[in-house]
Amino acid sequence: MICPECNEEMLVIELDGVEIDLCDTCRGVWLDEGEIELLAGLDESSDEPFVKALRDRGAEKRTGNRKCPVCSKAMIIVEVPLDPPVEIDRCPANHGLWFDHGELDAVVAAAKNTEVGGFLNKIFGADTQT
Fold it and tell me: Domain ranges in the chain?
């Protein structure tokens, strides 16, 4: 898969049966639809800010410049109400989510899943902890 940020080929790593596409150049992460919920141990009825933001179409701020690596449609920027807020890119056809360096760690940390946060820290280095 090609990185939507820097157009480099991404690496595929696996955690608990979930494939994570990782760009070794910009350190961004692509997750297919539903994978973030699996990684963070959440379900669709969760009250976590991230899940609520994905359900709430009002959280969509604007169309971004990045294109979905699956369908090439311009992705929509969604604001996740964390402190500070995190803006992620979502495919309008629901193929998945793009996280810039550090954004996935911030979302997972807010979901209080330390196993995933620790795993991401090992991959990206200590500077990803929020």
Answer: 11-128
